Amino acid sequence: MTNGIEKKFKEPDQTQMLNRLWELQKSNGYIHDDDIKELANAFNVSEVEVEGVISFYHFFQRNPTGKYTIYLNNSIIADIKGFERIKETLERETGATFGTNDRTGTFGLFLTPCIGLSDHEPSALINFYPFINLNTSKVKDIIAKLKNGASAESICDAPADNIRYTPPENKTVFFKKFTPGSVI
Question: Given 3.40.50.300, 3.40.30.10, 3.40.50.720, 3.90.1150.10, which CATH number is that of 68-155?
Fold first, then answer.
């Protein structure tokens, strides 16, 4: 006797939907209505369910995003370190406003709440390549290079991995010391 769960996993593995969505986003710059219909059929789900996945992940877009898709981190840390100046400079240099593309379709500007580079703010992703410790001069230089044909990959930064966790030698002491409700 089989139950609904076993039957569901005999269909195409729905966990692969994210991979397919990423492929579409990367190759087309956005996810088209026809893509949603095809994915719904391929994964035996409704179009609404596919739309739900797309809307949950803010890097998936439903409209063209431009040759260079720029996601600027708008976290509180970025705000403290000059987010507004960077935002204004990106808009001025690209001719786009956030949430849109410039008139040529070259640059698309989007805000994002986190790109995992909080220790290098202000930061952005351009075509998913990292650009860190941004200032107005650096942004002008980046956009000029992109306008002159450079790829985001060729001019991106290589962020240092400053996040380290070293387990304490005596975990028992560590957990006794930091139990909920205890005073440190």
Answer: 3.40.30.10
